[in-house]
Amino acid sequence: MSELRQNLVTKEWYVIATGRARRPDDFVRRKPRPRLPRRSSRCPFCPGNESLTPPEVGRAHLAGARADGTWHVRVVPNKFSAFSAEGLAVRHLNGLYRWAAGVGVHEVIVESPRHDLIPAQMPLEQLRLVVRMYQERYTAALEDSRVQLIILFKNYGEAAGTSLLHPHSQLMCTPLVPTHIRYRAEEARRYYDEVGRCVFCDTLATELKDKERLVWENDGFLVFSPYACGSPYEVWIMPKRHISCFSMTTQAELDQLAEALFVVHRKMHGLLSDPDFNYVLRVTPKDERYGHAFHWYIKYMPRLAKQAGFELGTGMYVNTTLPEANAKYLRDVEVEM
Questions:
Q1: Mind giving me the DSSP string for 65-115?
Q2: Element (H, E) at 200
């Protein structure tokens, strides 16, 4: 049997193919990753190769590190940016057709000096630096008057679309808000207008009460498998406190977020043997960041299934795993902090 489930937050419908339910062993990565050196002379993100990137816009050091040019996190403009750093965000109308200047921001957050470091091996103190840099660059992007939407994301592995092996994330800012993101913000606002509460906060309360889909939590964050989702072993990492804009997250909460990512990386690695994955920071459009209806979170998606004709034709995704079972499998993976 199968069932259709709707995600209350996104209003999207998903097919949960319970009759084809698959276990973690069906998704374990079989192909070993290539062995990488600790440093590559050809990698633009490795220490000593800084001249191969555009001038940096940020760097961070671990506590106690010497001020001798050493860095532990480094941020540079993307050399092959999808957007132009110069120009005005101007829109044009030509008969039926519209176009806009492709201005915006595209940065690379180099997460570690080590070329060979996989996410499940990243120390917690290093992840804290990375997460704090996320907020630093996010807050800086808010000051650009051309920016309407800020997206932070990480691609890991070939199936996730990564092009460089050195551990890194990306920040991209667009001069307009895509329709599907505007729609989600409007749905969140509609829910708030109807019931007087944030749909994300209500989702958190439900997951904490049910506990079936709970994966892990600390004082600041909940990790859970969404009731309706299209990716096997997809989890959301959501702050327990209502925070409408990522820039409003406290330093203590950022450290708790780093803990959550640390645990999720290791649980996914332990269960699925270092899977390819994407995660993306889901945020409200810039012009709605002070509202009460939206609540930022991270969507973490192992790349274990492919889109086919049904998904392309309907916009609905078929998930051959049960979110409740996924959460239990992930809960059972022990992680040493």
A1: --SSS--SEEEEE-TT-SSBSSS---EEEETTEEEE--B-EEEEEE--S-T
A2: helix 199-210
Residue 164 CB-half CA count within 13 A: 20
**Across-strand partners of 154?**
279
Which residues lie across from 106 on neighbouring strands? 172
Distance CA(193)–CA(190), nearest Å, equals 5
| Residue 312 host element (H or E) | helix 309-314
Asked if residues 112 and 129 have their Cβ atoms less than 8 Å apart, the reply is no
**Domains of the chain and CATH, by start:** 3-22+42-331 (3.30.428.10)
End-to-end CA distance of the chain: 40
β-strand partners of 98 = 93
* Model confidence pLDDT, tens digit, residues 87-128: 888 888 888 998 888 889 999 999 999 999 999 999 999 999
pTM: 0.95
Residues 301 and 153: beta-carbon distance below 8 Å: no
Q: How many CB atoms lie within 10 A of CB 208?
A: 13
Per-residue pLDDT of 242-290, as tens digits, reads: 999 999 999 999 999 999 999 999 999 999 999 999 999 999 999 888 8
